[in-house]
Specification:
elongated; Four Helix Bundle (Hemerythrin (Met), subunit A); 132 residues; mainly alpha; 0% strand
Length: 132
């Protein structure tokens, strides 16, 4: 096993998720015909899939980077797995929310708050480890 087994596991899973979300958008554009092509306003059927992919592409790299930094700083394995597993679960819930065309909205709000708290906590943990 490599020197960063936790990041390899969760980074790999999150990478596959981002690729699947992007592939989903590409397939929808392909079957949607000319009105679904890039450069045109998104048809309603593409709004949530595009946002799910875009949101994952925005936030997953930061989460994986934070996980990597914490692992390289030798954070405890349990908490690294907790953070990595939480990232995967929150991203899956967000993708499921998009599959359900944004219903119910409370899911998006709760997932967003949990995601922000998780990433902020990981950042604060990294700063703490720097000074510890």
């Amino acid at each position: 096993m490599g020197a960063i087994p936790v990041t390899l596991l969760y980074g790999g899973l999150l990478t596959v998720l981002v690729v699947l979300l992007g592939s989903w958008v590409s397939i929808l554009r392909l079957v949607g015909g000319p009105s679904a092509r890039i450069g045109k306003p998104n048809p309603e059927a593409l709004v949530f899939p595009v946002r799910a992919h875009g949101n994952a592409a925005e936030w997953v790299p930061l989460g994986v980077l934070a996980l990597l930094l914490l692992e390289l700083a030798r954070g405890p394995s349990f908490w690294l797995h907790f953070c990595g597993g939480s990232l995967v679960v929150l991203r899956l819930i967000h993708a499921g929310y998009a599959l359900n065309r944004g219903r119910p909205f409370i899911v998006a709000a709760v997932v967003a708050v949990l995601h922000y708290c998780l990433l902020a906590g990981m950042g604060l943990w990294a700063v703490y480890l720097h000074f510890a």
